[in-house]
Amino acid sequence: MNTLPVYRRRMADSRRALFGWGLGLAGVCALYLPLFPSMRDSGLIGDKLQAMPAGMLDSFGLDILTMSTGWGYAHQTVFAMLGMLLLLVFGIIQGARAIAGEEESGSLELLLAHATDRTSVLTARLLAVVTCVIGLVALLVAVVAALNTPSELSLTAEGLLGEGAALGLLVLLHALVAFTVGAVTGRRSLATAVASIVAVLGWFVHNMGAKIDDRLPDLSPFHWAYGATPLHSGPDGAGLLWLAVACVVLAVLAYLGFTRRDLRA
What we know:
Elements: H1 3-13, H2 15-32, H3 36-42, H4 44-50, H5 54-60, H6 64-67, H7 70-79, H8 82-105, H9 107-113, H10 118-148, H11 157-185, H12 188-208, H13 221-226, H14 230-233, H15 237-260
Keywords: Membrane, Transmembrane, Transmembrane helix
Pfam families: ABC2_membrane_2
Transmembrane segments: 18-36, 73-93, 126-147, 159-182, 189-206, 239-258
């Protein structure tokens, strides 16, 4: 088994990307969170939301009362909007590149030619994707925690833990959609497209599905992650379990598909 050397190499190659994306996430937190006290006290949050069309508020899951609280503001601006969006883009890119990107460039064939079996390579790349996602989510949570008191958010450690776990598994699920499609097909563009479509549909069903059927949001990974408002209420065991099971299923499908197909020359 050559899993560890391949994993180390992959992580070394990802250092610059992790640094850049980490700066971006920290910048989002530093840009939005410190504004909360002044926006709350001036009533600016309510004024801006009331000026927006109702359909737009629904599509983004925005609520005036929730946004006026520290946890609601942090959730909407960081964990459910810009921070989440950056992490989803990062996760999908990493997942699509892990196998399919290397296969299209020809470097995967070269790696396998050096007495490295497919299972070891897939395991190493999977672990690298998981490590990168968890690392950036942990950084985001740490920055929010550091800004918690200065920004008067009144977030609890339990809430941050629940929100971080939900966001981490949500991003990992979409990263693994790209990873699995890439491992099964060897096509990076297809992997990116499928994962992006899953994300868009999931977001739509989570925020707008109830207008069609009250049970529809239950099918969305975003609802599994955020339906129980973990930043306010703490970890949601049922939602985290659904996300974890979906991640495991995707990983198994990646192994089954990658080990049984012919690689593209």
